[in-house]
User: Which sequence fits this backbone?
């Protein structure tokens, strides 16, 4: 067991007193933002210990994460948390065995994602913070400039074009809704009782619900037919906004350049992601080249 993490758990009294005798502690995954440890106690209880990555508080609004995590509790969408340290933002949650990974049908997985997102988007929850992508990009660009991080010329070209053409269009169309904003694979869980959970609310905030759809589509690399199915499943009897396809297409491009910036900053601080950032910016450029820009051109 990792002695440093073990000592931290005991020192900070992260576990319930009657479950404090730890028999197993192992790294679940070295995430791109956090490290997550599976902790098993003598009583058989299982917890996930989340340790934030180096300098992530510079890039993530942890106070909003804390507040939003509590607000969505009424929706039964988040896993039960045991401890949350406001000084270090270490979080302890009850472990959920994810059965979603055993589902082979991509369409069944889409059904589950839509059910979770509809529950969130149709709620009357209002987060105090907004996740507006242009502001997020500006925040990351400030970190880039301050640290003289080298960016690809492809990024500089694409960002300048997007800023002059699409920012105002997107902002004028936003339906401010409580959103998760980071639907990477693994952030949707399904337990053995068919309860659905969304985890990792670090980027949560008020945004357009189409951002969450675009995020799931992009991060799970849905095919065009799967994407069409998801939009039909999510909206059902509701009418799609006339500009929905254009908004989703733009959101995909913005997501790739946002997470490109994020990766470049993390690489500057010593993380190694291989060609992750390069793939992000090249996909953004490809999607932009295929996008019909006429909808927001004067």
Assistant:
């Amino acid at each position: 067991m990792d002695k440093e993490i073990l000592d931290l758990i005991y020192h900070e009294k992260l576990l319930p007193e009657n479950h404090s005798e730890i028999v197993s502690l192992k790294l679940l995954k070295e995430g791109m933002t956090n490290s997550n440890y599976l902790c098993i106690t003598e009583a058989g209880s299982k917890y996930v210990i989340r340790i934030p990555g180096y300098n992530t508080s510079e890039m993530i609004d942890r106070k909003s994460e804390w507040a939003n995590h509590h607000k969505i509790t009424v929706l039964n969408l988040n896993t039960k948390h045991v401890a949350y340290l406001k000084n270090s933002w270490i979080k302890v949650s009850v472990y959920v065995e994810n059965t979603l990974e055993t589902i082979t049908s991509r369409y069944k997985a889409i059904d589950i994602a839509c059910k979770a997102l509809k529950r969130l988007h149709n709620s009357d929850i209002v987060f105090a913070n907004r996740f507006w992508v242009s502001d997020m990009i500006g925040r990351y660009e400030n970190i880039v400039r301050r640290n003289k991080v080298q960016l690809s010329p492809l990024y500089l070209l694409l960002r300048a074009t997007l800023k002059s053409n699409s920012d105002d269009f997107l902002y004028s169309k936003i339906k401010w809704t409580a959103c998760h904003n980071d639907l990477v694979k693994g952030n949707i869980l399904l337990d053995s009782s068919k309860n659905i959970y969304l985890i990792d609310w670090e980027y949560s905030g008020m945004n357009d619900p189409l951002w969450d759809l675009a995020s799931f589509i992009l991060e799970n690399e849905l095919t065009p037919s799967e994407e069409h199915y998801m939009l039909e499943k999510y909206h059902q009897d509701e009418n799609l906004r006339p500009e929905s396809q254009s908004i989703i297409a733009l959101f995909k491009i913005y997501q790739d350049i946002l997470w490109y910036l994020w990766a470049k900053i993390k690489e500057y601080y010593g993380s190694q992601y291989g060609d992750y950032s390069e793939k992000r910016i090249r996909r953004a450029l490809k999607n932009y080249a295929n996008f019909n820009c006429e909808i927001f051109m004067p």
Observations:
- The longest helix spans residues 244-268.
- Residues 294-298 have pLDDT under 50 and may be disordered.
